[in-house]
Each structure stands twice: as C-alpha cells, then as structure tokens.
Design goal:
By secondary structure, the chain is an alpha/beta fold. Helix content is 31%, strand content 27%.
Length: 380
C-alpha cells in the first residue's frame, strides 16, 4: 500500500485519554489521508475488537480537518452523534471510533491566527471516563448474569429463570449504567448481543429442566442482525430451552415477527412479548403473530390487590383473551403476598418478581425454607 503524503507541519492532532479519563498524549495527524483501524500499519493502529480493520479516515483539506467513516461496524461519532459521509472537525470536538475516545486539538500557531474557532463544550471528565470504562467492558467482555426465578402459579414449582445482565466494571454494574453509556456511543445492539451471549454461556451451570428467558433491545427488533445473533446463541446454548423476549414497543412488523418465530422454532426456542400493557398494547400482533408467552408489565400488577374491582376485572379479561389465543400469561413485578394471590385468582400461568425471588448470582440453588413459605402463601 502506498504511503500517504506527509504534511510538512502537522497542525492537527488527537488527544488520547488514559484509563483514569485524563489526557494521556497527542497523536499528530501527520499525513493525509490519515487512516484509523485495527489493521497494523495504519497511521493510527487501535488493536481493539470493537474497532473495524479499516475504521475511519482523516484528511486535511485547505487546513480543515475532515473525518470519514469507512463503513465500520460500530461507527464513528463526533460529539456523541454517529456520522454518515464526510464532516468537518473543529478543535475540542470529541471524536470516537466505536467507544475509543479522542479530543481534536490544533497547534498554538494556528489558534493564534484563528482565535475565533468554534469550541464545543468542554469534554466532561466523567463522560470521558464512562467511554473508557465502556470500551473495557466490551473488549474484556466484563459482564455476568444473574437469575430471577419464574414460578408456575399452579404447581408452585420453578418454571424457569430470566437471565439479567450485570457489569463487572466499577461504575457500569447496572443495566441502566451500561445502556446509558451505550446510548452515547450508539452501541445498544452490540451491548445487548454481548449480554445475551453471556447469558447463554451461563446455562452450563443451570438446571436442565427449566426454560431460560433472555432479552433483546428494541433497537434490534426485528432485523437480519438479530436473526443472525439468535443463530449464534443457538450454537452457544447447545439445545437448552430458551425464550427470547421482545419488548412490546418493538412488535410492529408482523412479517418480521413471523420470520423470527420460524427461526426460533427451528432451534427449539420460544418467543415472549415483554412489558405488555406498558404502552400501546399490541392486540393485533397477539392474534396475527402470537408469541408463546405474554409478560404483563409490572405497572399493571403493582397494587392490584389494593385497587378497585374494575382494574382487576380488566386485567382478568386480558388474561382470558391471551389464553383464548393459546398464549401463556406471566405477571411481572409481583412484590407482595396480596399481589401474588390476586394474580393466581385471575388465572395467570406464571409469576415473576421479588416476592418469588430476587435476581441471584449463578449457579442458582434450591429455594430456602423462607422462599418455600412464600410460594405456599399463593395457594388459594
């Protein structure tokens, strides 16, 4: 590959950040084009899995610094926004290749000649630190799973577990923290896939006779990439019974849902619509592209034993409708004995929530005596 022409006086540079979020050093943009990627030999070599082999390209045109994404998988972002095409950079811009973060700098001579250059708001140290920690989370796959039981309300036995992701990087332990940073770097789908695959790997220490519920993110549904990730997951779980959860808000394309159902059936997996009733209930989709489970949103369950009779009547009618369509009804967010009793009376097949068990580290163990007493309290 022919080397790019060098610039006599580099006027632009990129400021690296260390693990503590502090500036670590400068990388002069010493030639044009200035290529960035995972391949060795590029002007800026970033040997990180989230970086594409040839990720992006910087060019200097009439003293202006330009950046162009080269079709990277995880994108190039300027000030938190993913770019398309070529855009002009200004000093102090925040430039991200996937989740690797740099600040754009310009030498002092140019600044003296052009004192009115735009300054984007100062890069908050906390933001830089978040991005660096997120990069570590992705590259080290520093996530784990916890399991929350799903209880059969008739037999009072454990039907399965929902596997929930937790971070192992300080400051990014909770799903809220992880997905908050993933939103900033436009990597929601990548994080979701990693958490799902990690859940699949954890099945090896879980009981064989239960169903395992794993999540998708609404940005994934329903795309060809999701279908491919399901195929990858099937290779990881090796035939374990898996339920793929799709958020109700993402259930909008009947054709795509039917295609996904066909793929899941091929791999012996089931489908659940999550958070049903949280927004616009997808009643048409229930009939035309029926899932195996409907997980009723916790807001419908919360305080149901203390509410007026009409609310319970409405919830019971929805449960009956779901049953008539051949779908299993699951109550989410059950926290009290009263809520558990009403859910059983209304005909819910399954229950999930703190009342039955909090998310716990793997491997799961047999219920304690106290847990058993809680379950027995749901008998009517």
């Amino acid at each position: 590959m022919k080397n790019p022409p060098a610039l006599e006086n580099a006027t632009w540079f990129l400021i690296r950040f260390g693990e503590d979020g502090r500036p670590q050093g400068e990388v002069p943009v010493h030639c044009t084009p200035f290529r960035v990627g995972r391949n060795a030999g590029l002007e800026l070599h970033l040997p990180i899995s989230s970086i594409s082999k040839q990720h992006a390209e910087l060019s200097i045109i009439e003293d202006a610094l330009m950046v162009r994404d080269l079709g990277s998988t995880n994108g190039t972002l300027v000030n938190g926004r993913r770019i398309n095409g070529t855009i002009r950079l200004m000093r102090d811009d925040l430039l991200q290749f996937a989740s690797s973060v740099f600040r754009v700098g310009q030498n002092q001579r140019i600044l003296a000649e052009n004192p009115n250059g735009r300054t984007v708001a100062q890069l908050p140290a906390a933001w830089a630190m978040e991005l660096l920690l997120f990069d570590r989370l992705l590259n080290e796959r520093a996530v784990t799973s916890v399991a929350q039981p799903i209880i059969d309300l008739r037999s009072h036995r454990t039907h399965g577990y929902e596997l929930l992701g937790r971070g192992q990087v300080e400051g990014l332990e909770s799903p809220k923290d992880m997905f908050g940073v993933a939103t900033k770097v436009d990597m929601l789908a990548e994080l979701s896939v990693m958490l799902r695959n990690e859940a699949g790997r954890s099945f090896a220490v879980m009981p064989l006779d239960h169903w395992y519920f794993v999540n998708t993110h609404p940005v994934e549904v329903v795309t060809a990439e999701l279908v491919e990730s399901i195929k990858d997951l099937a290779g990881i779980v090796c035939g374990r019974p898996v339920v793929i959860e799709i958020h109700e808000s993402a259930v909008t394309n009947l054709h795509s849902i039917r295609e996904l159902r066909a793929v899941l059936k091929d791999y012996g997996m089931r489908l659940a619509y999550d958070d049903f009733g949280a927004g616009q209930a997808r009643l048409l989709e229930l009939a035309e592209a029926s899932p195996d489970y409907v997980k009723f949103d916790m807001q419908l369950i919360r305080g149901i034993d203390q509410s007026c009779g009409k609310r319970a009547q409405m919830l019971g009618a929805l449960v009956n409708m779901v049953h008539e369509l051949g779908i299993l009804a699951l109550a989410e967010g059950v926290e009290t004995e009263g809520e558990a009793k009403i859910c059983a009376q209304l005909g819910f097949d399954y229950g999930q929530g703190y009342y039955y068990g909090r998310p716990a580290p793997l491997p799961v163990t047999a219920p304690s005596a106290n847990d058993t007493a809680l379950l027995l309290a749901t008998r009517t």
